[in-house]
């Protein structure tokens, strides 16, 4: 082991379904990598806490689903995949937008409805995309992103050069979505056609206010693909997520067909801002997770175990990131709202000419004769 890298024990992080061997039991990480992981995850945490505050100050309106508690999942996936791999997810998408080309100001600016937001202020919390960075949303309909992800995997296989590893696709969805028929229908095709597809269940134990014991007859989500192999990962340990996802990417990218990955994780906030998150679960449960399994605290303890950062240096870094996030928020607040004419741009596939900009297209106005639709 060199002085700037450290080996961490990640044994016990995985459970396998239809695999003889799984990811490794130790992982070697450099100082630079671990510091980068910490900074990324702490930025995610601060960004989501800031969203919470801005929402309560009524600077953000509408839906808003926060990701704090689940940071190791998004950070670990990003670290293991290549930028060319396609990623699609549910409405809980702020930090994924950050991983895929967005800045804090662009994500929060989107929530403020500003023109500089990742989707030009027109999507809001649930609809962030970045095609250039192979991020395909941000979907409000539970489970709908999974067939879309399967299509992305099909495209990646179609475009791959014969004999070379394929770019992969990943669709993240919740435990509450996992029993939907469309997921199995897509997975069946992916298995028949050996698509490079990762079905990634973020098991945060609740679908809105309903616990998995009440909404699912099976709790081993990684086994749900039946013949399709599965991997359950400790989703609170970012190092386990990275190694697990490298394993998954290699498996599907080599043409073996799809995989089910279950991330064991937890959300601290309620389902969305209208849910206090404490009526259907015990406050002690949240507190217990915060004190024993917190993914950011885990990275901090790894940094100290490896002597990569002292407690003092960690505190300094946190202070710096808190300031940076605040600065990004102030910047986004200064941005303009989108121009009225922009409202329909990039929304409909067909050109909107001769739209004259007087009324929003496709919105039914009280005087229907004034509503703008295409001539059909
Ligand atoms: C088809 C559909 N049904 C219901 C809803 C309302 N709804 C939004 S989120 C949600 C729960 C999803 O829980 P889960 O899949 O576990 O994801 P999590 O919110 O925990 O990330 C429901 C029922 C919806 N958006 N779409
Ligand atoms: Mg859930």
From TrEMBL:
The enzyme's E.C. designation: 1.2.4.1
Keywords assigned: Oxidoreductase, Pyruvate, Thiamine pyrophosphate
One GO BP annotation of this record: pyruvate decarboxylation to acetyl-CoA
Statement: the UniProt record of this protein carries the keyword Kinase: no
A Pfam family per the record: E1_dh
Top-tier EC class: oxidoreductase
Keyword flag Plastid: no
Co-factor(s): thiamine diphosphate
Domain (Dehydrogenase E1 component): residue spans on this chain: 40-339
Gene Ontology molecular function: pyruvate dehydrogenase (acetyl-transferring) activity
Alphabetical list of CDD domains matching this protein: TPP_E1_PDC_ADC_BCADC (cd02000)
Reaction(s) catalysed (UniProt annotation): N(6)-[(R)-lipoyl]-L-lysyl-[protein] + pyruvate + H(+) = N(6)-[(R)-S(8)-acetyldihydrolipoyl]-L-lysyl-[protein] + CO2
PANTHER family according to UniProt: PYRUVATE DEHYDROGENASE E1 COMPONENT SUBUNIT ALPHA, PYRUVATE DEHYDROGENASE E1 COMPONENT, ALPHA SUBUNIT BACTERIAL AND ORGANELLAR
Free-text function comment from the UniProt entry: The pyruvate dehydrogenase complex catalyzes the overall conversion of pyruvate to acetyl-CoA and CO(2).
The protein, known as: Pyruvate dehydrogenase E1 component subunit alpha
Native source species: Fragilariopsis cylindrus CCMP1102
